Amino acid sequence: MKKKIIIISGDPLSINSEIIFKSWKKLSPETKKRVYLISNYSLLKKQLNKLNYSIKMTKVRDINESSSNNKLKIININCKFKNPFKLNKKVRSEFVYKLLNYSHKVAFKNDSVNGVINCPISKTLLKKNNIGVTEYFASKCGVKFKSEAMLIYNRKLSVCPITTHIDLKNVAKNINTNIIFNKINTIEKWFRYKLKKKPKIGILGLNPHNAELRKNSVEKKIIMPTIKKLKKCRVNIEGPLAADTVFIEDYKNFDVIIGMYHDQVLAPFKSLFKFDAINITLGLEYLRTSPDHGIALNLIGKKRANPSSLIKCINFIKNYKK
Asked: Which of 152, 155, 217, 281 could form an S-S bond across to 211 if both were Cys, CB 3.0 to 4.6 Å?
C-alpha cells in the first residue's frame, strides 16, 4: 500500500467537519485508502448529521489497520464532549493537544507516513505555550526557533515570515543573522531537493523604506550581512526589497518572498491568491501542511465553507516524495 496521509480534525468549534466532508467527496478511491483521520468519532458524526451530511466512517485502532469500501477511517481520540455544538475553550484545548501529540507520535520517523495535515486550529487553544501549530510541531521535533520555516506555498509564489505568531512589538528582538540564514537555507534546500528547482528568493526589510539603510537599522546590521552570507553559499537571493511595493508587480520575478513578520507577507499573498495555497512547515522530521485559513466561526453550520485549501493539502502530500 502507498504511504499514509494523516489528517488531524483540528479545532472542534470550526468549519472543519464541513471541509473534511466536502474534501472526502472529491477524493479518488485510491487516495481514500491512504487517508486516516485523527478525530473523535462521535463528535464528527453528530456534527455531520447536524449539517445533513452523510458519509461512511469506520473506527480503526491505528494506521496499520485498513478498511474496505473506501470508508473514512477514524482513529478515535477520547474526549468528554457534553454538547458537540457548545464547546468551551478548556475542552477544545485538551482535545487539540491530544490530536497534535498523537499525530506527532505516529508520523515521527515513520516511513509509512507521507505527511500530516492539520485542519485549522484557533491559536488561543495553544496560548499556554504562546505558539501556533508551526512552533508546536517544531518544538516536538527539537528545532523550534532554529531551522523550521513556515512556507505558504503556491506554484506561482510562496512566502515565508521569519517570525511567525508573535506580537509586532517583539519582532525586532526575534530577528538575527542565524535565524534568517537557517530558515532561508531550509527553504532553498527544500526547493532544490524536493521540487528540483533552484528558487529565486526575495527578502524584505523590516522598516518602512528599509529605514533608508541607516547605519544602525535592522536592514543594515542584520539583513544585508545575512544576504551576503547566503550569496556566498550560492543562494539566489535579492534584497532587502521594499515591502510596500514588491507585491504590486515585482513579486512575479521571485519564487519565494521572505518577510520579517507574519502579516507583512501573508496579507498581500492572500489578497493575490485567496485560498489557492497551503501552509507547509519545513525543517521537521516529517512533512506537515495545513489549509491556509482559520476556523471561520462566522461560517459554522452555513454550508458555505471552501474546502479547496484542504484538498490542495491532500493532493500535495499524496504526490510528495519523501
From this structure: 217
The per-type count for the chain, helices as H runs and strands as E runs, is 10, 12
3-class state of residue 230 by DSSP: helix
Burial class (CB in 10 A: 0-12, 13-18, 19+), 127: exposed
Task: Give the whole-angstrom CA distance, residue 206 versus residue 264.
Answer: 9
Same domain, 114 and 176: no
Q: What is the pLDDT of residue 82?
A: 74
Angle between helix axes 41-50 and 16-26 (nearest 10 degrees) is: 90
Instruction: Render pLDDT for 162-200 as a digit per residue (tens, 0 to 9).
Output: 998 888 999 999 999 999 999 999 999 999 999 999 999
Beta strands in the chain (DSSP E): 4-8, 35-39, 57-60, 72-76, 113-118, 149-153, 158-161, 201-204, 237-241, 256-259, 278-282, 288-291
Q: C-alpha angle with apex 165: 161 to 171, nearest 5 degrees? A: 65
Is the same domain home to 135 and 159? no
| Residues of the domain holding 230 | 147-278
Residue 135 φ/ψ, nearest 5 degrees: -70, -30
26-70 confidence digits (pLDDT tens) = 999 999 999 999 999 999 999 999 999 999 999 999 998 887 778
Contact 287, 317 (CB under 8 A): yes
Given a contact cutoff of 8 angstroms between Cβ atoms, the answer to whether 205 and 218 are in contact is yes
Question: What's residue 128's pLDDT?
Answer: 64
Do 191 and 211 share a domain, yes or no? Answer: yes
Joined together, the cell numbers standing for residue 35 give 487517508
| pLDDT category of residue 145 using cuts at 50, 70 and 90 | low
Distance of alpha carbon 158 from its chain centroid, rounded?
12
Query: 110 pLDDT exceeds 60?
Result: yes
**CATH number, domain with residue 109:** 3.40.718.10
